Amino acid sequence: MAAATASMTHPPLEGSQRTLGTIALSAAVFMNVLDTSIANVSIPAIAGDLGVSASQGTWVITSFAVANAISLPLTGWLTQRIGQVRLFVWSVVLFVIASWLCGFAPSIEALIFFRILQGAVAGPMIPLSQTLMLASYPKAKSGTALALWSMTTLVAPVAGPLLGGWISDNYSWPWIFYINVPVGMLAAWASLRIYRNRESPTRKLPIDRIGLALLVLWVAALQILLDKGKELDWFASGEIQILAVITVVAFVFFLIWELTEKHPIVDLRLFAQRNFTTGVVTLSVAYGVFFGTVVLLPLWLQTTMGYTATYAGLVTAPVGILAIILTPIVGKLLAKHDPRLLVTGAFLIFSAVSYLRSNFNTQADITTIVIPTILQGAAMAAFFVPLVSITMSGLAPDKIASAAGLSNFVRMTAGAFGTSLVTTLWDSRTTLHHAQLTEHIQTGTLATDQALAGMRAAGLSETQSLATLNNMINQQAATMSATDIFYISSGIFLLLVAMVWFAKRVKAPAGAQEAAGGAH
Questions:
Q1: What pLDDT does 7 receive?
Q2: Of the residues 79, 151, 322, 437, which has the fewest C-beta atoms closer than 10 A?
Q3: Distance (Å, rounded) from C-alpha 299 to C-alpha 293?
């Protein structure tokens, strides 16, 4: 059942057991979160090795995301049927097996099938790892427990592309999956050893088959729509239009069914709680904007500024420095201060970081790029844990696991939506800026003729000079588009400051303690 129930039934762990439990749970979480991003930079290598196009290779990412998004909101129901310890351990073991099978996949079809399996079994692992983590610590240290746990979830998305690129460059793509095997088996063994006598109560619940079918239908349609929309030119494509209709119709029927079903597969009545709704909406919007810009920055560095994938990863990696240093401090502050204040500070830093990035240009040096990245780590440390505590505050103990899965699901969906929206907006704004710049750079104008003359003097032909000039325009247009998005992001974070204050005040550390099962 919920972490709150577990923590009342079983006393906190002590000494080496608590330390080992923390390491085991964190390792499982890091492995899971890492796998959501590590394959992204390896798609060209995977597609080339399996003899398919890059667009077909993207299904390696989409298949995992769809299955994971579907299984996340089922965590509460599965926990009550199986028990939190058994469900967590089985989730880790099956994830390891699926990872091993992914590495051995002989074809793209087999790899996609195993990625679906991997995503499906991964869902309960994230919220239940936090459930067990909170149950391992005394109530007074719940904020610290949340902070320790969240460090892995903050660092893993940054490390994923860097590690995936390094493995693909120096070894072969199957190793991005094989590295899960030793980590996962050790995490499963340690977790079972420490938590096997701390199982939560279970009860048999009827299966909401219609609700489950509707959930699978609309989530799968939405995830595919978001993933393939940019490639197919969004609603200019009949395929995207059909997916949009399926998503909307299935979602409406899903809402009606789940709100009237006695034993719903997803408890939507949780949104009747003011803090849950405020916390989920605020966290999801913030995560969507944050994750969208996290994807945009390395893309801009590689496609516009000429950085390699590995070097772009190294430049963006410092985001984890302040996040790791400050997260434990935030956990302690949460025990004494209103979490809304901490979130407000985080959003102001996020806004400032986005504003600094909105002033980037094509001459930006390493220092200019890295400083906002380092500062962003402070915001990452201060927004996640307090928002989780707000989201879960005031919920009954038997609702925590369901709330954990549901809040994770909404947040991850927002992340996927934010990524699609940002990349699409970047392309469209780049096209717009390119057209506007071209209007001012035409042969016959003094500046253009001087630039072309200088290139010809350097030994370039007329065609080469025009191509070089067009590349310069593309670089400027892409940079201007990226800075537009950063500027918009800055404003959104300022609006989120007001949104978080719609939540009721949370009495710490109770709010943090109730947050067991929170997010990833």
A1: 40
A2: 437
A3: 10
